Amino acid sequence: MKNFVEELRWRGMIHDIMPGTEEELMKGPAGGYVGIDPTGDSLHIGHLVSIMILKHFQSCGHKPFALVGGATGMIGDPSMKSQERNLLDEETLAHNVSCIKAQLGKFLDFNSDAPNKAELVNNYDWMKDYSFIDFTRDIGKLITVNYMMSKDSVKKRLSRESSEGMSFTEFTYQLLQGYDFLYLYRERGVKFQLGGADQWGNITTGTELIRRTCQGEAYALTCPLIKKADGGKFGKTEKGNIWLDPERTTPYQFYQFWLNVSDEDAERYIKIFTMLDRETIEGAIAAHRECPERRELQKLLAKEVTIMVHGEQEYENAVKASNMLFGKATADDLRSLDEKTFLAVFDGVPTFGIEASKLPLGLLDALAVETSIFPSKGEARKMIQGNGFSVNKEKRTDPNGCLSADDIIDGKYILVQKGKKDYYIITVK
């Protein structure tokens, strides 16, 4: 057996661990689970830490269970929240669960004949017919209110000045999550629950239920909550979360997120978010420290994570798109971009509109009359003749040339460039 705990330890992925966990895991293959609340129809990179833990769990020979909280998702976990979540209806939750299942399949082996193939379970399946009276009689009597109030997730919420308190619905969350652990322990022999540091209180409620009802031993391990080196929130940008769904965050934007992390963050993230072995990672870090300006560590990190989430082809497309702004791309590369990636690459570039009926249109009129890309025809002429002007990444040296329908890409855009760095988009309406 490969030592799962040791694998996480050198990667900096252990925050809390229950005594005996490492020893129990070294006895042989075991079952462990991570819970994910389906509050949206896509996971984001904040979920990746827990997913990577499950991925390592499977690679070390153990059997991972991904628990999608169709029942607990209807309530909302109060951990790390300043106010109560909006509750989702059954139809929305069912849609979210279906989408998350598909995404998890990129990380875990659900389909092989291996004895430790991953399984996806939904706590709605065992909660939907459990009556409130039966639950409070069977489970509620086992855990005291004093015990539940002692958990950080409850104490921090109630101590905040801005807090509006905590509803009974939210207060019951830790009992429901604890029951998930008890159910999987009884029915599937799952002895381990894994998760983020904010889940420690909920997880240990589960181990306590198992101890009191089955006189059994169950174990817990949590990973640190990931933050950026500057203290900022990991995975957040000005435009919000970095999603795993390519419709929400394009593979290009996804790749760029990892490519632009700081040196300090890259050294931590490459251990947490890739499956590269220790020797490879330590070699890459050492090489990067000798020549950090080349950003080879960020490139390796971005490559590994993008391929894992979106595949080799999308990674290659993202690299191609990244080269657009730095003069290395060709006209064919530009035309191969889909519209979302094109707009992501040139986000913030000044945009002008031209009526399709005016094409073909002389270059000088297009650049200095119909648009204000150049302040005058004279300046436009001078730059075109000086070999400093391009349309769709192709040089134009004839000031008497024109823009035509053949120049339109993605059905409505023409990209013009003056000098090395100044880009403009002409939208053909």
Question: What report would you give on this structure?
Answer:
- With 429 residues, the chain is of the alpha/beta class.
- It has helices at residues 4-10, 21-25, 48-59, 90-104, 124-127, 132-138, 145-149, 152-159, 168-171, 173-188, 200-214, 251-259, 263-272, 278-290, 296-310, 312-322, 331-335, 339-345, 363-368, 377-385, and strands spanning 16-17, 31-36, 63-68, 119-122, 190-196, 219-223, 236-237, 240-241, 351-354, 361-362, 389-391, 394-395, 402-403, 413-418, 422-428.
- It is built from 20 helices and 15 strands.
- 43% of the residues lie in helices and 14% in strands.
Q: What's the helical proportion of residues?
A: 40-55%
Let me know the number of strands: 15
Anisotropy-based shape: elongated
Q: Tell me what portion of residues adopts beta-strand conformation.
A: 5-15%
Structural class, by secondary structure, is: alpha/beta
The radius of gyration over CA amounts to: 27 Å
Uncertain segments: none
Strand order of the largest sheet: 1-6-5-2-3-4
Largest sheet: 6 strands, mixed
Distance between the termini: 63 Å
Query: Average pLDDT across residues?
Result: 91
Tally of helical segments: 20
What's a quick, concise take on this entry?
By secondary structure, the chain is an alpha/beta fold. The chain has helices spanning 4-10, 21-25, 48-59, 90-104, 124-127, 132-138, 145-149, 152-159, 168-171, 173-188, 200-214, 251-259, 263-272, 278-290, 296-310, 312-322, 331-335, 339-345, 363-368, 377-385; strands spanning 16-17, 31-36, 63-68, 119-122, 190-196, 219-223, 236-237, 240-241, 351-354, 361-362, 389-391, 394-395, 402-403, 413-418, 422-428.
